[in-house]
Amino acid sequence: MPANKSASIRYRIIDQCLRSKGSPFPGKEDIQEEMQERIGYVSMSTIDKDLYAMRFDEELGFLAPIKYSKLHKGYHYEDPNFSIEKIPLSASDLENLELAMHTLDQFRDVPMFKEVDQAIGKIVNLMKLNRVDSQKDKQDYISFESMPRAQGAEWLEDIYQCILERKVVELEYRPFQKTESKIYRLNPYLLKEYRARWYLLAFSPERDAVLTFGLDRVLSIEVQKEEFRRSSKFDSKEFFKHSFGITVSHDTKVERVKLKVGKVATDYLKSQPLHITQKITSESEEGMELEIQILPSYEFYSQIMSWGDQIQIISPEAIRSKMKEWIKRGLEAYSKSS
């Protein structure tokens, strides 16, 4: 059967081990050690199954000429020029690759992706994926959401290099609603895209905390000669685990928010959860009730408000009251404009 993603990664590691000129004729223990270093523990029985599949499973698209050398006590390719990297792509592979390239096309105007754009163009020509534009019956089969290029994209490449090289940066920043800017000395950790805007997460020694900066509010960046040591405690998945959107406030605590969801919104939130922690607690013909564990933020309240009467905050009372204030101010704004 066709390989899943995990198996494909293991096959490529095995392929690289068998083609290594520095360590020829690897044994199973050598392959296991390499996998341990790159993807974590893999059992010996799994390696046995992988070697067998690479040799005999025709659905993989190749039959690897793997042989065992008693003299060298290790494995090798009978054909020294063989590599699974050289296997031609199937029609399905080509379609998936073309779809991925359309996705990457969303970032064509972002400076740091220019080199990737050129590389994709080479792949297109190499694999002959380009279609004949003169076809009369040509149709669009998939349409991607197009977003205008956000301000601040010009800082991406410099910041990305600083993250890779562990370089300290001095960043001049002016938040929305402020008239004056401030200089921050930072250890840049992560670039994150959210709703067509780019953000930098960086450790501030002055504040002893990881802060978030919108790149569209950055006025200037100066790369310092000084290098920093990235904290092993920072884990982006854990950092954003309870966030709603991009905001992670150090002054708020994680809240267990209970929501009542109307019939119309129920199917939408089942297919695309409101938050990664979403848990359905009850269902009825009228809708459902669910819980999420979040750090309440501007993004949270605006999202709830966007659903109108389809989502109602049940508890905690403090968050429910704040939502009422949002709704009240909204009604007042409409009353003033009429």
Describe the structure.
Residues 128-139 have low confidence and may be disordered. The longest helix has 21 residues, at 317-337. The termini are far apart. A 5-stranded antiparallel beta sheet has the order 6-5-4-3-7, covered by helices on one side. It has helices at 5-19, 28-39, 44-56, 91-104, 114-127, 156-165, 236-239, 263-271, 298-306, 317-337; strands at residues 66-69, 74-77, 167-173, 182-194, 197-204, 209-214, 218-227, 255-262, 279-284, 287-294, 311-315. The chain is of the alpha+beta class and 338 residues long. Helix 1 packs across helix 2, helix 1 packs across helix 3 (44-56) and helix 4 (91-104) packs antiparallel against helix 5.
- Determine the mean pLDDT: 82
Relative helix content: 25-40%
**Spans with pLDDT under 50 lasting ≥5 residues?**
128-139
What characteristic shape results from the CA principal axes? extended
Strand share of the residues? 15-25%
Structural class: alpha+beta
Q: Summarize the helix and strand pattern as letters.
A: HHHEEHHHEEEEEHEHEEHEH
> How many helical stretches?
10
Q: Determine the N-to-C terminus distance.
A: 65 Å
The strand order across the widest sheet is: 6-5-4-3-7
The biggest beta sheet reads:
5 strands, antiparallel
Radius of gyration: 26 Å
According to DSSP, the number of beta strands is 11
Which characteristics define this entry?
single chain, 338 residues, alpha+beta, five-stranded antiparallel sheet, four-stranded antiparallel sheet, 10 helices, 11 strands, 36% helix, extended
